[in-house]
């Protein structure tokens, strides 16, 4: 019966440990997934900054590990010798403690005898020649005993000092070994941290490369749409696509994005400012040239990405105009393009929903609802074959 209870207990103990390990792994996985989601939502330049900081952290860790490896190697040889010395000292100490114990026994025995020889003469004791001889013998014995007690006491004192010295040496060696073990633990911890950082770097670089690739694919799709609507000229689009075709290989295929696009197709907006498409937002991605610090690529952003300060935010049309495009796309989610006076077009991409009254060919007023976004709005402005910085058109107040 007891055996069955023990087996039953061991089974549940094993299940508890396995469950605890599984929960721990699940927690780590959830934490990493949360971190990845945060990285996916970051600005491109912030993610690049994380990657560069991660690389610096890895270099620092490598230097620390190298230094600790060197220190540990030196300590290891010393620790080996000290362990041997510790065993020798411990053995010697055991022998000394035995000697000390034997000396204590001898001292007690000798002192007892000395005490017996020093007992007073009993009353009625008759002096005689024999008694004088007995006293002489006792005196000699007492002297011998005192000398032996003195010698053993001196030896005992010396052994005690030796034991104390050995104990001090043992303590010193143990402290040194403790430092060595602490260094080993620190080294192991740094190596684990290094592995974790390397894995984070791999993930962040993959996310970053995907963002760059998506950015190009989105810009290509938007250019194609603008070309089909005759908003951007065929020749200009062909030139920019030619520039985009350059391939850079650095862990993954990263394509350069329109590096010569700015010189021929960007103009400054000098007209009156208008309303912003979102009520409350921050600029997640700026317009214009961006030097990618990770792969050292020159990227040209033809639009801005505005992050709403609240989810499911309303997107508003910024100028009176006419809707020329409104539909789902493969890379840009839902897109609405509005044509305005003076050859201006505004593009609203990555919409989560398009307002039900938005129809191609329909006129739309400034401030009218175009649709809704979850978080980010890609906003682009063109004027007669030129790209305009959208932040020059809208008020940021």
UniProtKB/TrEMBL annotation:
Superkingdom of this protein's organism: Bacteria
Domain M23ase beta-sheet core: 311-386
One function term, GO molecular function aspect: metalloendopeptidase activity
Classification via CDD domains: M23_peptidase
Keyword Magnesium in record: no
InterPro entries given in the database record: Cell_wall_metabolism_enzyme (IPR050570), Dup_hybrid_motif (IPR011055), M23ase_b-sheet_dom (IPR016047)
Record keywords, A-Z: Coiled coil, Signal
Coiled coil (UniProt feature): 19-106, 163-235
Record-given protein name: Peptidase M23
Classification of source organism: Bacteria, Pseudomonadati, Campylobacterota, Epsilonproteobacteria, Campylobacterales
């Amino acid at each position: 019966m007891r055996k069955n209870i023990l087996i039953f207990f061991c089974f549940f103990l094993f299940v508890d440990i396995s469950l605890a390990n599984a929960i721990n792994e699940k927690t780590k996985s959830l934490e990493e997934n949360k971190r990845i989601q945060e990285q996916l939502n970051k600005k491109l330049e912030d993610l690049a900054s994380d990657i560069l900081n991660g690389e610096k952290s890895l270099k620092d860790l490598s230097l620390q590990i190298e230094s600790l490896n060197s220190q540990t190697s030196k300590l290891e040889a010393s620790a080996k010798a000290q362990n041997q010395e510790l065993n020798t000292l411990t053995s010697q100490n055991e022998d000394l403690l035995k000697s000390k114990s034997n000396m204590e026994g001898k001292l007690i025995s000798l002192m007892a005898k000395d005490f017996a020889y020093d007992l007073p003469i009993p009353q009625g004791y008759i002096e005689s020649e024999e008694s004088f001889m007995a006293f002489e013998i006792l005196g000699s014995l007492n002297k011998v005993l005192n000398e032996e007690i003195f010698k053993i006491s001196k030896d005992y004192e010396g052994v005690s000092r030796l034991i104390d010295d050995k104990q001090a040496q043992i303590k010193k060696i143990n402290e040194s070994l403790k430092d060595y073990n602490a260094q080993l633990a620190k080294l192991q911890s740094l190596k684990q941290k290094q592995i974790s950082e390397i894995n984070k770097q791999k993930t962040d670089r993959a996310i970053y490369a995907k963002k760059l690739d998506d950015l190009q694919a989105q810009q290509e799709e938007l250019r194609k749409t603008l070309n089909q609507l005759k908003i951007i000229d065929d020749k200009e689009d062909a030139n920019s696509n030619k520039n985009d075709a350059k391939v850079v290989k650095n862990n993954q295929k990263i394509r350069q994005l329109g590096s010569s696009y700015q010189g021929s197709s960007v103009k400054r907006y000098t007209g009156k400012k208008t309303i912003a498409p979102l009520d409350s937002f921050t600029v997640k991605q700026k317009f214009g040239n961006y030097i990618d610090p990770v792969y050292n690529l020159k990227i040209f952003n033809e639009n801005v990405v505005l992050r709403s300060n609240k989810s499911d935010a309303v997107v508003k049309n910024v100028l009176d105009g006419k809707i020329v495009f409104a539909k789902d796309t493969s890379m840009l989610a839902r897109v609405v393009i509005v044509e305005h006076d003076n050859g201006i077009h505004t593009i609203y991409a990555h919409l989560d929903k398009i307002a039900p009254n938005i129809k191609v060919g329909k006129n739309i007023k400034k401030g009218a609802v175009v649709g809704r976004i979850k978080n980010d709005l890609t906003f682009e402005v063109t004027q007669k074959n030129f790209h305009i910085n959208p932040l020059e058109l809208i008020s940021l107040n």
